[in-house]
């Protein structure tokens, strides 16, 4: 008998492991996916999430910038990429990138999130300049989180340098963290079928390991809901867990729900809310060494992201402001949310809304009942504050 109300008795052995804090196996992951006891899986994930993150649900004020959609990889799942000269292709200047970053910072962003295409003509130095100009445009407390491992590999090719050196150069230019994109699904079968030119899984993992060793924190993702099997999803999670055991620098895992519109896989149906919640909950249960599980509201939708906070999720990402990759693939979510929207969504669930920076340092904690700031982090430019307890007296603002 466990503390969970399971409608699927075959999950009892897994429930016993969850209660004991024992690592789940690949077979357990596959069994969880095979079960339709979403509420049972959700209870277990919520139990684990409380052990790891208590009542907190994190969000952030951030700004996404996609400097170009011109990309020499044309992955079948991507509606964002264009070839040079094709209708809809765009490339930003360094000035435009810097202006967007400065605007983000003056709007209160603690993170500038930059993901781009693999531009066939941009030089190695131009990519470094994107980071330099962004760094110079924002105050020190703003984290520059830029370039997926796929872009790092591209820079290594054009710069004729090992990826470790590319990361060191980017760090010297002002890079703080890497986003988690480009991992897709690690299975070679899916890569060969839908993104054959893209970074191989070993290389993606090696680059993240190198970043961790250089003190660059990273996130990790999994693109799901296309041609992959559930076994391939679980294998993906296990490989991320192994990498985390080895180098320990993943902060958050973000399952990315596939959006088919305007892609070469447009005949696929996309994910369901049931699958989204189950995938987020199973991630919490399998990834016992990754501190945060994020529901990216842009991709799973506002309603699922909010519900997900009761299914193992402790982070719903941020204000975002301008999102192109998912919206070009048919996302119907807004392109931006206000801080009040995010705090309100979290407060309704009874969790404590915590504004954070990219490194999960607390910027401000909100009282769950009053939704007022429980502590005022001060003006933009002040360093992030850590260890602020909820329930302290509001100081205004
Ligand atoms: O790398 C591309 C994926 C990623 C589609 O690290 C698609 O905090 C769904 O990585 N449907 C970019 N997904 C987004 C990303 C991300 C987002 C939010 C937070 C973080 C973080 C990272 O989006 C790409 C690719 O894996 N993607 N096309 C599509 N049609």
Structure description:
The protein has a single domain, classed as Aldolase class I (TIM Barrel), CATH 3.20.20.70. The chain is 39% helix and 13% strand. It is α/β, with parallel strands linked by helices and 397 residues long. The termini are far apart. It has helices at residues 12-20, 26-34, 38-53, 94-106, 124-137, 149-159, 163-173, 188-194, 201-213, 230-247, 273-286, 297-300, 302-308, 339-348, and strands at residues 56-60, 62-65, 111-114, 143-146, 177-178, 217-224, 250-257, 292-293, 315-318, 352-356, 362-365. The longest helix is centred in the middle third of the chain and has 18 residues, at 230-247. Residues 77-79, 115, 148, 179-182, 184, 219, 221, 223, 254, 256, 258-259, 263, 296, 299, 317, 325-326, 329 line the site of ligand V47.
């Amino acid at each position: 008998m466990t503390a969970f109300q399971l409608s699927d008795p075959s999950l009892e052995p897994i429930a016993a492991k969850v209660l004991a804090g024992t690592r789940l196996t690949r077979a357990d992951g596959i069994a969880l996916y095979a079960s339709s006891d979403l509420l049972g899986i959700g209870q277990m994930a919520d139990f684990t999430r409380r052990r790891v993150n208590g009542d907190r649900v994190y969000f952030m004020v951030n700004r996404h910038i996609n400097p170009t959609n011109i990309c020499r990889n044309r992955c079948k799942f991507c509606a964002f990429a264009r070839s040079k000269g094709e209708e809809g292709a765009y490339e930003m200047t360094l000035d435009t990138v810097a202006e967007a970053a400065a605007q983000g910072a003056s709007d209160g962003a603690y993170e500038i999130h930059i993901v781009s295409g693999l531009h066939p003509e941009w030089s190695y130095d131009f990519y470094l300049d994107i980071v330099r100009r962004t760094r110079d445009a924002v105050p020190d407390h703003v984290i520059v989180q830029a370039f997926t491992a796929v872009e790092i590999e591209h820079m290594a090719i054009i710069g004729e340098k090992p990826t470790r050196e590319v990361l060191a150069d980017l760090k010297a230019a002002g890079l703080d963290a890497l986003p988690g994109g480009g991992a897709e699904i690690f299975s070679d079968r899916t890569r060969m079928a839908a993104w054959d030119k893209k970074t191989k899984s070993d290389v993606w993992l090696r680059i993240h390991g190198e970043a961790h060793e250089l003190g660059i924190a990273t996130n990790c993702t999994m693109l799901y809901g296309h041609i992959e099997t559930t076994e391939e999803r679980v294998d993906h999670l296990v490989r991320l867990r192994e990498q985390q055991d080895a180098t320990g620098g993943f902060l958050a895992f973000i399952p990315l729900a596939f959006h088919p519109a305007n892609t070469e896989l447009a005949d696929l149906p996309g994910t369901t809310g049931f699958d989204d919640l189950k995938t987020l909950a199973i991630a919490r249960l399998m990834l016992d060494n990754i501190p945060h599980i994020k529901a990216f509201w842009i991709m799973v939708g506002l309603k699922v992201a909010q519900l997900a906070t009761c299914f193992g999720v402790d982070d719903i990402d941020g204000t975002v402001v301008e999102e192109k990759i998912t919206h070009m693939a048919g996302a119907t979510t807004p392109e931006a949310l206000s801080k009040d929207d995010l705090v309100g969504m979290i407060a309704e669930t009874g969790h404590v809304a915590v504004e954070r920076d990219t490194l999960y340092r607390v910027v401000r904690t909100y009282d769950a009942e009053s939704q007022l700031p429980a502590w005022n982090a001060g003006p933009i430019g002040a360093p992030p504050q850590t260890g602020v307890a909820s329930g302290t007296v509001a100081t205004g603002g």
